[in-house]
Design brief:
globular; 12 helices; 36 strands; Rossmann fold; AB_hydrolase_fold; 6-blade_b-propeller_TolB-like; alpha+beta; nine-stranded mixed sheet; protease; serine-type endopeptidase activity; Peptidase_S9_cat
Length: about 675
């Protein structure tokens, strides 16, 4: 019902690093497995961490009749349903053969599941409706366009409001679709709004229009006209936004950072205009909500500083949350609730045990285990994660997450007995954040003998607008300084040695990797770039059309390519123009269909490095987009990554084995820089 922070951020999946190895490398081929510490736990197979989960994303239908989840069918993720009173009688209702079904939701009609699907990672998602009884899978939105569900409501259970840009690729029109027949009706033609909000009667109520300065104006519908209602300046644009309406349409909820630093949860009485702060926290933004499915009233607010902390606003659920907090270690998330609110699906996540799902009966106040997303993890030793605060050189507090090899963290204090190699893994966005909990990358690399550090550098979301805005126009500068300060912190604490630090990440994390190797070539021993932009000018000139309304935001926060000054700044911060300074090993991973960071971003820096005679290994997947979604592709890329890190930092390496089988991996350049890679490519099935 309520919108989360709908940023069109640059995100990514898993990746790794390689070029010509240093002379001190310990592994001689992709099959070599350096011996780890004597007390190191057994290797966790990559397949256990990165193949499809056994099940995930459990939900209960609004009417309580059905349970649904995502699980592999013939090796590809698909949707399964089961009667609520017989969860073991599950059956598949989709048969996707490509990239798999990842997300879904129940319609209120009790007959359909809705899910989005794109083609090869192009992110032109089409909305599907699959009939729970007949298995008929109908595509509701046209090909060649991008669609998203805007509103489902029990008042109109047979309808879905969908936003689709089939008429104008820049703007999304609201379209009402009849689920039974598939017939659609365009509500109106949108030519200026980036977001549109509806009430439970499916009436248009509010819309958000980006402004030239990078801010927003919220308009309120008045008959057939729109009236400006709230102006949000650029400094508040990513921390102030309307969220949704109560079911009776009388109250609007907002995140609001105006006149404060962190985003508070605010309610607005639409009849009187009265505004009330429901919850705020000086440390971090309110960023998660629990909503009564019957009334739409917010019942609890979540704030995530080091970890998520919930504040109950409605006493009616206080005892429920208290009971669920007693299920055991880990953060609890309410994943799904029936419309009658008598049954919940609850996800419980811990750094050392992964994610478990429970079915909760409110009347009996009793939770039953449902499934573990990766049950094979339970036979392996996972490492604890430490939430830490790292000071930046100019006085900011960088909330970060550190995982050490389990054998090095026997005292569970985050300080190894002896320094170990470290991988700095940088999140995408950059308007996103890292958080506490199970992290497959952290567990994988820690199991191989590395410390893993993820830093919420300035520009990361969730820590107030001052922290967020401190990163404006600072790509490759103070944002990068924060990463360098975190590395120095780890060195000073005896976590790692200065010559044993790698950097890696996806999207913005890929950019940070390229920037790290180009701008500070002596800091990192090697780098991993997954779908990272190399030239900020060409990045902004090739954004998807539907990002057009947000172009002013990018100009404000990154630099304006339409001005001489802004273009010069963007060029200065582009690793492409400093590619000749790279001298440490580099692996680049790219999806050919990426609509956000296009293949050209990787092509051009590879070409620049070639022209200067600098070795680089370039891995390209023809059927992937912004990150690697197909399990064979993930496993193949991670096998390359692991072998490279073993040569770069000396950690343990699981042999490639059959990790390349079924993958579409290609290596347009530099396969020979990682011994054993050409042979592995030749042997793949």
């Amino acid at each position: 019902m309520y919108r989360s922070l709908g940023l069109l951020v640059l995100m990514a999946a898993v990746g790794g690093c390689a070029t010509k190895p240093p002379a001190t490398s310990t592994a001689s081929s992709m099959e070599a497995a350096p011996t780890g510490a004597a007390l190191a736990p057994p290797l966790i197979p990559r397949e256990v961490l990165f193949d499809n989960p056994s099940r995930s994303s459990g939900q209960v239908s609004p009417d309580g009749r059905w349970l649904a989840y995502v699980a592999p069918r013939d090796g590809v993720l698909n949707l399964y349903i089961a009667p609520s009173d017989a969860p073991d009688q599950a059956r598949p209702v989709t048969h996707d053969r490509g990239r798999g079904v990842r997300t879904f939701g129940f319609a209120y009609d009790g007959k359909h599941l809705l899910y989005p699907q794109d083609d090869g990672g192009d992110e032109n998602f089409r909305i599907h409706a699959v009939n729970l009884l007949t298995g008929e899978d109908r595509v509701l939105t046209p090909a060649g366009s991008r669609a998203m569900i805007a509103k489902l409501t029990p008042k109109h259970p047979d309808a879905a409001l969908v936003m689709v840009n089939d008429r104008d690729p820049q703007y999304f029109d609201p379209v009402r679709i009849d689920l039974a027949s598939g017939r659609s009706e365009r509500v109106f033609e949108n030519s200026r709004f980036g977001d549109i909000m509806f009430d439970d009667d499916l009436a248009v109520r509010f819309a958000v229009q980006p402004t030239p300065d990078g801010g927003n104006t919220v308009h309120r519908r008045d008959g057939d006209d729109w009236q400006p209602w709230i102006t949000i300046g650029a400094d508040d644009a990513l921390t102030t936004m309307p969220l949704g309406l109560t079911r009776d349409g009388s109250t609007l909820y907002m995140f609001d950072s105006r006149d404060r630093d962190t985003a508070a949860l605010v309610s607005v009485d639409l009849a009187t205009g009265d505004r009330r702060v429901l919850h705020e926290d000086a440390r971090a933004d309110v960023d998660d909500l629990l909503v009564d499915p019957r009334t739409g009233v917010i019942q609890a607010a979540g704030v995530n500083y080091l970890k998520t902390e919930w504040t109950v606003l409605d006493p009616a659920i206080a005892d429920d949350l208290a009971y669920l907090s007693g299920l055991g270690e880990g953060e609890v998330m309410i994943a799904s609730r029936t419309l009658a609110d008598d049954r919940w699906v609850v996800a419980q996540m811990t750094a050392e045990h992964g994610t478990r799902y429970w079915r909760y009966d409110r009347a009996r106040r009793h939770a039953e285990p449902w499934f573990h997303t990766r049950p094979a993890l339970e036979q392996y030793t996972l490492a604890p994660m430490h939430a830490v605060e790292i000071p930046s050189r100019d006085g900011l507090r960088l909330v970060s997450y550190l995982t050490l090899p389990a054998e090095s963290d026997a005292d569970r204090d985050g300080i190894p007995a002896e320094p170990v190699p470290l991988v700095l893994w940088v999140h995408g966005g950059p308007w996103a954040r890292d958080g506490f909990g199970f992290n497959s990358i952290h567990q994988w690399l820690a199991n191989r003998g590395y410390a893993v550090l993820s830093v919420n550098f300035r520009s990361s979301t969730g820590f107030g607008k001052a922290f967020l805005n401190a990163g404006n126009l600072q790509w490759g500068r103070t944002m990068h300084d924060d990463l360098l300060d975190a590395v120095q912190w780890a060195i000073d604490r005896g976590i790692t040695h200065a010559d044993k630090v790698a950097i890696g990440g996806g999207s913005y994390g890929g950019y940070a990797t390229l920037a790290g190797l180009a701008f500070t070539p002596d800091v990192f021993a090697c780098g991993v770039d997954i779908v990272g932009p190399s030239n900020l000018v060409t990045l902004l000139e090739s954004i998807p059309p539907y990002w057009g309304p947000m172009r002013a935001m990018f100009a404000t926060r990154m630099g304006d390519p339409d001005t001489g000054e802004g273009r010069a700044l963007l060029a200065e911060r582009s690793p492409l123009h400093q590619a000749h300074r790279i001298r440490k090993p580099l692996l680049i991973g790219q999806g050919a269909n990426d609509p956000r960071v296009k293949q050209a971003e990787s092509d051009q820096i590879v070409q620049a490095m070639q022209s200067h005679g600098i070795p680089v290994t370039y891995v390209l997947y023809p059927d992937e987009g912004h990150g690697f979604q197909r399990p064979p592709n993930r496993l193949s890329f991670n096998a390359v990554t692991e072998a490279f890190l073993g040569r770069c930092l000396g950690g343990r390496v699981e042999p490639v084995g059959d990790a390349f089988d079924g993958a579409t991996i290609t290596v347009p350049h530099g396969a020979g820089f990682l011994p054993g890679l050409p042979e592995a490519l030749a042997a793949k099935k």
